[in-house]
Fold this protein.
Amino acid sequence: MIFTTHDPKLKAALAEVCRQMPLYASETSLQVTVHWQEPDAPLCWQRTGDTVTLACASVHDALMLLGRAMTQRDKTTEKLTPRVAELAAMLDVSRNSVYTLPMLKRFLCQLAFLGYTACYLYMEDTYELPGYPYFGYRRGRYSVAEQKELDDFACSLGIELIPCIQTLAHLRTAIRWQYMQPMRDTVDNLMVGEPGTLALVEAMIAHFSKTFRSRRIHLGMDEAVGLGTGRYRLYKGWRDHREILLEHLNTVCGLCDKYGLQPMIWDDMLFRDHTPLMEYYGDSAPVTEEEKSQYPANLRFVYWDYYHDTQEDYEKQLRRRGCLDVTFAGGVWKWGGWAPCLSKSFQDAIAATEACCRMGVQEILVTLWGDDGDETPLATVLPGLALYGLLRFGSAVPAQTDPYCRLLGGAPLSVYESMEQLDRIPDRPDANLEALIPHKLLLYGDMASELFLPAITQDVPRLAAHYQELAAQYEKTADTVGDEHLQQILKMYQALAAVLALRCRAADRLHKAWQKRDCHGLRAACELLEQLAREAETLHTATVAVWSRECKGQGLEVLDLRLGGVSGRCRALCQRLALYMAGKLDTLTELDEPYLPYSGLLAEDGRTPAREAYGEIVTANTLCHQFSI
């Protein structure tokens, strides 16, 4: 794609876009003219043939307008007034996926074309912090030079890059090291009031006051469950956790004042206290001016909610914030398993954005978490990001994201939606509004000590056929998309679907043969298990290719272990079956034990397994024992 423009600012930005991001457009060149205007004036684009004229006040608005001019094919001009002043994305780089600089630069270019004004980097300890050599050690942390390079690149696109860190909880990987022990309260929380803690937090804030241009900083402080109940209580005695939190909050916000930064926090710990069971989304009266006065005056509060499906639910929670200065954080679901949950992301995005517009919220943050291993590739969430971009300027429906998927991803929306079919299985509702992850439960769940399969389906052959059909579909689709990375992702999903189909068939054959002590059936089960081990290795190879395209090498070892465990477990079961059939074992206790109805986290139907983490999926035994303090 060749863009021609005489404006130096826009020319520089478009040069970066063309270097970092492929554009899959029908035209090969565009002549772009920009008229800079006052910030409050309506945004406008007009297109005549291969000439596009823009009217706006900033580079990021110019790129957004250009994106609309290239996707709104039924229009020749458009005048826009944003309903929300700021739209930001938050990228999790702390749950093993530390994205490479080229991947992040492509992502930032996509954000610019979608109308985003800012990007938060969620870094628990995945950044180099001078003076703390073990901070982010072996975690793929961004060096100081990389941090500055990313900030420079974002600035060239008119996007504000904002540090989103943790200054209280979610620091498990940082405080594991010996030098951090005096600063540790619980396994996850810092010890409030300790000199070492204050020095560490000041080092964080001072660092980002110099590394990033933004004068804003997100301090985290969410989910500080157990605050004050570990070493704090041993050394300092019992104290109400809210008092501890407010002490730390005032101290840290004071440090932000010292270094010229405006702080914000996730606000859940302040609202959990208003409900009997510490429930974040409960009921409480709106925050009053008197209540607000107990918080630092420079503080902004981020209400996060990725769960509700109706506008009324979001409005109810926004009303609880009363007079607080609030940013809303929604999300695109990429943190359940290996595939994005777009159906829930779409519905919740529409409901939440309409609620924010009605309630006067002017900042929306779209989170892209990576909980439990970050197995979902970043490139799969493009449609969800695009929908939020469209909603910023008016009502929108998911189908309208299709032109953006084609332009920025090289494939229609339907290709992205097909990824969710891994979870939209037979006998489940069409829309996965609970973000259930049967594919992950089946992939890692043990086939001998079975926890999940009977609760997921009563027709195993039908489920196996579903996954086999998906494998064929992904293989066929991969050959039609123009983007090489998306091709790799579809090949990975092809391998995953093939593994799931075989897993269902192998488990079904194994348990049926064992009930009858049918040696012929057990040998057939062994053959399926051996085949499954090989297919799991194929999936592993495809996964390494996708990961290597997006992420640094640190963190991949977690998926290596998980997928290696799948193939290793298949071979171990075959070995035990061989010992049994050779008369060297009287029985296999893992197959003798009768199945009980699943009694872990359940979906709304009361029987289907809900979202579980790897540690609860892979075994009913102890995967890792860890003290809480």
Remarks:
- The radius of gyration is 26 Å.
- The longest strand covers residues 29-36.
- Residues 484-516 form the longest helix (33 residues).
